[in-house]
Design a protein that fits this description.
Helix content: 25-40%
Order of helices and strands: HHEEHHHHHHEEEEH
Strand content: 25-35%
Radius of gyration: 18 Å
Number of strands: 6
Number of domains: 1
Strand order of the largest sheet: 3-4-5-6
Largest sheet: 4 strands, antiparallel
Distance between the termini: 53 Å
Oligomer: single chain
Structural class: alpha+beta
Length: about 230
């Protein structure tokens, strides 16, 4: 028995998103500009602009404090940039992004990746064509696994929700660990560590209603990300 077209489109959408998680993202698909610190009861949930960013290069936020907090802020901000649709669909823009935030070695490595197949998945194709898409993501937490004055390794866990008109939005939980290196007076993306993993994924509440892609776009229009940092 052949499956409905909507089912096949949803399957391709989910597959494309997971490929993106494995191929692109520094700390998993944990896109988002900041976090509440993961230790809100102890540290207090308040913005801390002192750790950066202090500047932009090619439209990318750069300029972070040489501290543990600065490294985490850079990791989360760079994570957001590396998972933008244009990173996949626009080779020239991808080069600009990597030049701004990555070490030379990481820029060469990620610049050589072949994203043509990924760019043809429903969400990326729609984004490239200027069609409405759902692209809502956020980190849920982080852990600093190693920190030195010139290098940091940060583990993060978060969610990404993607969708296009006519296809029910998909949500993925992803976790992974990535490296930052202090070079040229700033924290730079130095590559991911090990394998980006799905989950941990909680079970949805039984009977919870599902929202259409158009419903997401209407209800979340104008929603802005948080800019809190540790």
């Amino acid at each position: 028995m052949s499956r409905p077209l909507a089912y096949e489109e949803e399957r391709r959408l989910k597959t494309g998103h997971l490929v993106a998680a494995l191929a692109l993202v520094f700390l998993g698909v944990l896109i988002g500009w900041a976090t509440n610190g993961g230790e809100g009861s102890e540290r207090g949930d308040r913005p801390n602009a002192d750790v950066g960013p202090t500047d932009t290069v090619n439209g990318i936020p750069v300029g972070y404090e040489r501290s543990r907090e600065g490294a985490v802020a850079a990791a989360l901000a760079y994570d957001a940039v590396l998972a933008r649709p244009e990173f996949v669909t626009d080779a020239a823009r991808r080069t600009e992004i990597l030049d701004a935030l990555a070490t030379p070695e990481a820029a060469r490595r990620y610049g050589r990746e072949d994203y043509r197949a990924l760019a043809q998945t429903p969400v990326y194709r729609a984004a490239r064509e200027g069609k409405p898409v759902v692209w809502q993501t956020t980190p849920l937490g982080y852990r600093v696994d190693r920190y030195r004055a010139d290098e940091a390794q940060v583990f993060t866990w978060g969610i990404a929700i993607t969708g296009v008109s006519g296809v029910r939005p998909q949500m993925s939980f992803v976790s992974g660990s990535g490296r930052l290196r202090w070079e040229e007076g700033d924290w730079k993306f130095a590559g991911d560590v090990g394998r980006i993993q799905d989950g941990p994924t909680p079970t949805p509440v039984e009977g919870a209603p599902r929202t259409s892609t158009d419903g997401f776009r209407v209800r979340l229009r104008g929603l802005k990300g948080l800019r809190y940092v540790p």
